[in-house]
Amino acid sequence: MISLKRTTVTDPAFVELVSMLDKDLWARYPDKQGIFAPSNKLDERVQVVVAFSEGQPLACGGFRPTASTTEIEIKRMFVHPAFRGKGISRMILQELERWASEQHYTSAILETGIKQPEAIRLYETSGFTRIPNYGPYQDIEESVCMRKIFAS
After folding, report:
1. What is the pLDDT of residues 81-136, one digit of tens each?
2. Which of 25, 64, 87, 89 is close enough to 46 for a disulfide, judged by CB 3.0 to 4.6 Å?
3. Which helix (H) or strand (E) holds 101?
4. In terms of C-beta density within 10 A (0-12 exposed, 13-18 middle, 19 or more buried), how is residue 59 classed?
5. Which InterPro entries does its entry note (predicted)?
6. What is the dihedral of CA 5, 97, 103, 41, to 10 degrees?
7. β pairing state of 47-53 and 2-7
């Protein structure tokens, strides 16, 4: 059985998973990952969800407020390779949306990359639509930016 834990960026399970995520991204985007590093820095404003099974961390994701008072940015979504294809990323994403909605946020933005078709598919099937690249991603052709308005 999979359980979800709302936590912070200092949670050891989250730190472990994000380390794996960073290695995965460096492998996919070796020439560009250094550009993304500043955008991936996490601070105490980031709220995190970690999925566990029998005490083992399986997946994570987080969100942080944007300059808008009604919008969040989804960050650091990752599923351990051994547990992919089981719907865990969708569970994480749905929990992040619920948590954000509880705090009166009404929409989310995110950035993913063209070499992550599984992530693009997850976001599209979860109601996200492509938008022009925003902020630090504006001139990065490998970036795919998306937005979702939460259901009322």
Report:
1. 999 999 999 999 999 999 999 999 999 999 999 999 999 999 999 999 999 999 98
2. 64
3. helix 88-102
4. buried
5. Acyl_CoA_acyltransferase, Bact_Acetyltransf, GNAT_dom
6. 70
7. antiparallel
Please report, as a single letter, which amino acid is at residue 100: A
**Can you give the pTM of this predicted structure?**
0.91
Read off φ and ψ for residue 9, nearest 5 degrees: -70, -15
Q: Residue 21: name the closest of 61, 86, 103, 76 by CA.
A: 76
Read off the tokens for 126.
């979860």
Nearest to 56 by CA among 19, 6, 3, 9: 3
Sheet holding 47-53, edge to edge: 2-7, 47-53, 56-65, 71-79, 107-113, 143-149, 129-131
Rounded Cα distance, 41 and 119, in Å: 20
Q: With residue 100 as reference, give the H or E element that holds it.
A: helix 88-102
Give dist(CA 104, CA 15) in Å, integer. Answer: 27
Q: What is the CATH number of domain 2-149?
A: 3.40.630.30
